[in-house]
UniProtKB/TrEMBL annotation:
The lineage of its organism: Eukaryota, Viridiplantae, Chlorophyta, Pyramimonadophyceae, Pyramimonadales. Residues 133-143 have a biased composition (Polar residues). This is tRNA/rRNA methyltransferase SpoU type domain-containing protein. Residues 308-450 form the tRNA/rRNA methyltransferase SpoU type domain. Transmembrane segments: none annotated. Keywords: Methyltransferase, Transferase.
Length: 461
């Protein structure tokens, strides 16, 4: 409980409010009972109007200052009272500073307004029911209409009984050692451990249903169990699924997990460029079957014989890298080659921007750059790059054989491709744009270029 001391000037215009503990009221009353008040106030005029209640806030077991019959002597009083007197002296100094009529008022502060939490799904549905059907007796509650008192542990046990194939575990403590890789949130550290984080249900669907990558574990909010029940049953046997409350998830991850689930996937080994090219060349149509499994409509079937690659040099923005992966998968690319200076496609931000395309589209990292571009040319690839040069052609003029091998080479925004990389380019193209505009975001330019290459008319062999 606190009070406030209000110092008023004679014209009642300005006020100085000093909040002090309510316990000081007894000390203030003590000063009123002694002649020391006028000495301490100096030239501050009296009267000093105090509360009528006296000594109400004196600590239990302590002697009231008001019971003293003689002058105040701090050495003979309790230490606690001495501290209270020192605090009151600070208040008196403020009162003295504001000369004029002084008024001291002790009031109990107004309690803070407590905001009423939003109603849960169960509460909203409960209030919207027909009153004649409000009783739950004799009927089974829907899965999303569960009583609030049902504990998470009971819900997890119930889910486990319905889906015994799912390896479900309830985590109650954020320091549980099974979550240590989730708590190691730094992408570079996870990379050294050979794993990476996947967020949201949509990307987890690609990881489990489409990608060939291994799902190491899943961490999720119990509220997402019902919506993900079918997906969880598709997990390989003995893949752990950890369930924990939102508060624990936030402490582990370092941020609020709004999508309700995260997953941990194992990184595949990166092949040398020569082995990578041999692998994707021996798997014609892999990207088409993947796109069909994703539920997409294959509109590039007439040109599916073309082997399209994307090559990136020194792209450091994870949003751009992820966006290019997404476009590459959409337009039928069979793989991606990264220079040593490119950001990791498995960083969380890249995976989000790619909407999981980097989990499906194979990629590798060139170890000898830009010499590895020569390997592409030796394997029959035509290197195409966006560049404003005297020899650049309009993108609409592109034409390739139906079975052509094409590699679209992309440089970072600003500097573009290095001079060393440009020496290996076969075809320079440019995107026609309005007057006064000479560039696009690299992810946007990549999408336009990939569509142009994938749908370019067939030339004679």
């Amino acid at each position: 409980m606190q009070g406030k001391v209000v110092a008023e000037r004679p014209n009642h215009e300005a006020r100085k409010v000093v909040r002090v503990p309510e316990a000081l009221k007894s000390v203030a009353d003590f000063f009123l009972a002694n002649t020391l008040l006028s000495e301490r106030l100096g030239d501050v005029q009296v009267p000093l109007a105090m509360s009528d209640a006296r000594c109400q806030a004196m600590p239990v077991g302590e002697q009231s200052a008001c019971s003293s019959s003689g002058p105040f002597d701090p050495e003979t009083e309790n230490d606690l009272l001495g501290v209270m007197v020192a605090q009151l002296e600070q208040v008196l100094r403020v009162i003295k500073k504001h000369r004029g009529r002084v008024k001291a008022v002790f009031k109990e502060p107004k309690p803070r307004e407590i905001r009423k939490p939003k109603a849960s799904i169960y509460q909203r549905q409960k209030h919207n029911r027909d009153p004649l059907e409000s009783s739950t007796e004799g009927r089974q509650l829907p899965q999303n209409d569960r009583p609030e008192e049902l504990e998470t542990a009971e819900y997890v046990d119930e889910f486990q009984l319905k889906h015994p194939a799912v390896d479900l575990s309830l985590i109650k403590d954020f320091s549980d050692e099974r979550l240590i890789e989730y708590a190691t949130i730094g992408d570079p550290i996870l990379k050294d451990k050979g794993v990476f984080i996947v967020e949201s249900q949509n990307i987890l669907k690609r990881l489990i249903r489409v990608s060939t990558l291994e799902t190491k574990s899943i961490l999720m909010d119990p509220r997402a169990l019902d919506s993900m029940s079918d997906l969880l049953q598709e997990l390989p046997e003995h893949t752990p699924v950890y369930v924990s409350q939102q508060e624990v998830l936030a402490k582990v991850m370092g941020y609020t997990v709004h999508r309700g689930c995260v997953g941990l996937a194992k990184r595949p080994p990166l092949l040398p460029v020569a082995d990578f090219l041999a692998g994707i060349s021996g798997l014609p149509g892999v990207e088409l079957s993947s796109r069909k499994r994703l539920g997409g409509v294959d509109t590039l079937e007439a040109h599916s014989g073309r082997q399209l690659l994307v090559v990136m040099e020194n792209l450091g923005n994870p949003d751009n890298v992820g966006g290019i992966f997404r476009s590459a998968l959409a337009f039928g690319a069979r793989g991606v080659i990264l220079s040593p200076g490119c950001t990791d496609p498995f960083y969380r931000k890249s995976v989000r921007a790619a909407m999981g395309s980097s989990l499906v589209l194979p990629f590798t990292r060139a170890q000898e750059w830009p010499r590895d571009l020569l390997l592409l040319k030796r394997n029959g690839y035509t290197l195409v790059a966006l560049a404003i040069t005297p020899t650049a052609i309009d993108m609409s003029e592109l034409a390739f054989a139906a079975s052509a091998k094409v590699a679209l080479v992309l440089g970072a925004e600003g500097p573009g491709l290095s001079e060393e990389a440009l020496e290996h380019i076969d075809v320079h193209v440019e995107i026609p744009m309005a007057k006064g505009v000479d560039s696009l975001n690299v992810a946007v330019a990549a999408a336009i270029s990939l569509h142009a290459v994938a749908t370019a008319p067939c030339s004679s062999e």
